[in-house]
Amino acid sequence: MEKMMKNEYGSLTIPKEVFKLIQLEEELAREGETLDTIGFIPIVQEFAYPITPIDLIPFASTGGNGIHFCFLTDFGRITDLSEAPIACVSPTNDPPIRLVAPTIREFLNMASSVPHVELIETCWPWNDMEMAEGILEEYRSDEYQKKRDKLLIRLRETFPSDEVDVAECVHRTLQERNSKIILPTYDGLGVVPTGDVRTTRRYDFNPERSQDEEELTNIRSFLSDANTVEKLGFIRDASYWYILSSDYDVQIMKLVCEILEDLQLEDEINRFAFRN
DSSP 3-state assignment of 91? Predict the structure, then answer.
């Protein structure tokens, strides 16, 4: 646990909510219970997938299909994680990256308002509030709800919370994020302004996802004249477009490392090396 937290959180202070979640799971384990029952398991070991953006820090998983929840740091721009947006990474779904809450406090309200926390991810695509409520109601009426209710009570005791409309919260979070983005990216997170950047370009990747010399030359030419926002946008898109791991798209992975070093993003450099 200590190694994972040191490498994922880096110089950032780990929010108290993370420690309280870990403590709750430890208490439940001694009682023969687990937060897995409600799909809210604290992450204490290496967990990130290649699709997990490098500026996302995983803190909890649902226990199914690799789905995990993360703090979004915007490449170190957000230094107080209690104020960081929360994103859901769902590796087997489309889209795999889903912004769900503006802060950990609001996310905990959402987690306490559903019968199973994975439903936050399930309800994400539905703009129709009635449809989302229908999905939630199916869970509330199944045979396992009594068991989940006991765990939800413990969660609410640990994190006093307000009941909220999950679909509405997700919709509002996306609207707020989209209003801040200066450069859109494939992962839907986009890049928020840095400094006094006014104009931005986006690299046009080869649709065949090639890494031949011509493509690498084009990428290097783009990056040689790119501003900070454009470089961050490239990292986001490359992380989504390729599989950045030592077993797959190695050349692009090396380029991303070069950009991180050029921008002196120490936490992201260490995080990237730890995951690979």
Answer: coil
Backbone angles phi, psi at 98, to 5 degrees: -140, 110
Distance between CA atoms of residues 271 and 276, nearest Å: 9
CB 231 within 8 A of CB 197: no
Total domains in the chain come to 2
| Tens-place pLDDT, residues 30-65 | 999 999 999 999 999 989 999 999 999 999 999 988
The per-residue pLDDT for range 109-164, each reduced to its tens digit, is 999 998 889 888 887 766 656 666 666 676 676 677 888 889 999 999 999 998 89
Helix H, strand E, coil C: the string for 50-118 is: CCCCCCEEEEEECCCCCCEEEEECCCCCCCCHHHCCEEEECCCCCCCEEEEECCHHHHHHHHCCCCCCH
Do both 18 and 84 map to the same domain? Answer: yes
Same domain? For 151 and 260 the reply is: no
250 and 137, same structural domain? no
Q: Which domain holds residue 10?
A: 2-180
Are the C-beta atoms of 88 and 67 separated by less than 8 Å? yes
Q: How far apart are CA 245 and CA 247, in angstroms?
A: 5
CA dihedral 255, 256, 260, 261 (to 10 degrees): -30
Q: What token pair was written down for 242?
A: 């390729």
Token pair 């690979």 is at which residue? 276
Does 192 reside within a domain?
no
Closest CA to 23 of 52, 1, 54: 1
